């Protein structure tokens, strides 16, 4: 894995002739914020950076710190905030429609948002649209942002520029994709309600883990659909942030919570340090699918041929083998061609019902 010095040196070499357009979903806190700030510094503000999130006040404070370009060839730069409730697929689609109507391209789509709804070990609930809240934040909104904004990434690639989708979550664990109860509705119904909020919830834990595996399926699906673009699922590792540096297991497990947080802080890096590794991975990809670790290192990768059929062959000898993609074994990848195909069919059905 690259050292921090190697990552910094690689990032410093990023100096495109064009004004890069980056959309950072979840850019008002944590690693997303740090990545947006690092990109602004790296380009000396000579970039069109769009932070998507809920907190307008935090966004204004972040954008105010971005350097502003002074050179005459910086036409087209902008630093802006777009408000979005990522728990709502209708809100996500509306934001995407707005971006599609006014942008000509996107070079980098980075999705980091998780928040309490996506990360809580104690609370598990369904959104007004009927989605498991963990899956809404950790999978469905990421899928929808990617699908809706793909035309702008394709345009960037056709111009000979970077075109990269990065979902920051929990890559490299190789957890198997679910083939039953894909929406975790049964898990939610079977959870012990009177312990919710005071003790780790099994349905919440399943939501956290399932979202991780589904992101493997997400990048595999879109990489097969668009072999000329880059798609990455990456793990940010343990990060010292206001929202992510503490684990809370409920008051019944307070002593264990103390011990876990001591250990977590010992192995964590600051969000700015983690962002440098994430940026290293963002710049270090041409096309294909990448599963990356928390230092930006490639755990496994696969480049589809340009004549690859967009749909996976679910009748192939390896179609049902976990950790195989298009017949190729992939370290740290939890999907199989059949399970990814099933996940995507389910996802499209669910989103169609919500957004009709």
Automatic annotation (TrEMBL):
The record's annotation in Gene3D superfamilies points to:
NAD(P)-binding Rossmann-like Domain
What are the protein's UniProt keywords? Answer: Oxidoreductase
Q: Which domain of life is it from?
A: Eukaryota
| A molecular function GO annotation | oxidoreductase activity
InterPro entries given for it? NAD(P)-bd_dom_sf, SDR_fam, Sec_Metab_Biosynth_Oxidored
The name this protein carries in UniProt is: NAD(P)-binding protein
Which species is listed as the source? Mycena venus
């Amino acid at each position: 894995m690259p050292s921090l010095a190697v990552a910094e040196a690689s990032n410093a070499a990023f100096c495109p002739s064009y004004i890069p357009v980056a959309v950072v979903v979840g850019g008002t806190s944590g690693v997303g914020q740090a990545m947006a700030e690092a990109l602004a510094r790296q380009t000396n503000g000579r970039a069109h950076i769009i932070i998507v999130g809920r907190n307008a006040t935090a966004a204004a404070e972040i954008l105010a710190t971005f350097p502003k370009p002074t050179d005459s060839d910086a036409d087209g730069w902008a630093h802006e905030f777009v408000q979005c409730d990522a728990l709502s697929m209708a809100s996500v689609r509306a934001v995407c429609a707005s971006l599609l109507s006014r942008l000509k391209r996107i070079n980098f789509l980075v999705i980091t948002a998780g928040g309490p709804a996506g990360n809580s070990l104690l609370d598990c609930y369904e959104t007004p649209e009927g989605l498991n809240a963990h899956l809404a934040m950790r999978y469905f909104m990421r899928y929808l942002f990617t699908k809706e904004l793909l035309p702008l990434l394709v345009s960037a690639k056709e111009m000979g520029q970077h075109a990269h989708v990065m979902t920051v979550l929990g890559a490299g664990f190789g957890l198997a994709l679910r083939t039953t109860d894909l929406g975790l509705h049964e898990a939610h119904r079977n959870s012990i309600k009177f312990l919710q909020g005071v003790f780790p919830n099994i349905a919440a834990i399943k939501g956290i883990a399932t979202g991780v595996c589904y992101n493997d399926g997400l990048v595999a699906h879109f990489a097969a659909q668009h072999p000329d673009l880059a798609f990455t699922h990456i793990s940010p590792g343990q990060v010292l942030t206001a929202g992510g540096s503490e684990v809370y297991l409920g008051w019944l497990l307070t002593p264990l919570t103390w011990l876990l947080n001591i250990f977590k802080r010992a192995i964590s890096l600051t969000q700015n340090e983690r962002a440098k590794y994430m940026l290293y991975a963002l710049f270090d990809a041409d096309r294909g699918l990448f599963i990356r670790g928390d230092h930006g290192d490639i755990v496994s990768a696969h480049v589809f041929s340009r004549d690859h059929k967009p749909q996976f062959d679910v009748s192939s000898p390896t179609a049902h083998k976990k950790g195989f993609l298009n017949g190729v074994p992939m370290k740290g990848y939890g999907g199989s061609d059949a399970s990814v195909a099933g996940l995507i069919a389910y996802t499209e059905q669910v989103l169609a019902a919500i957004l009709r």
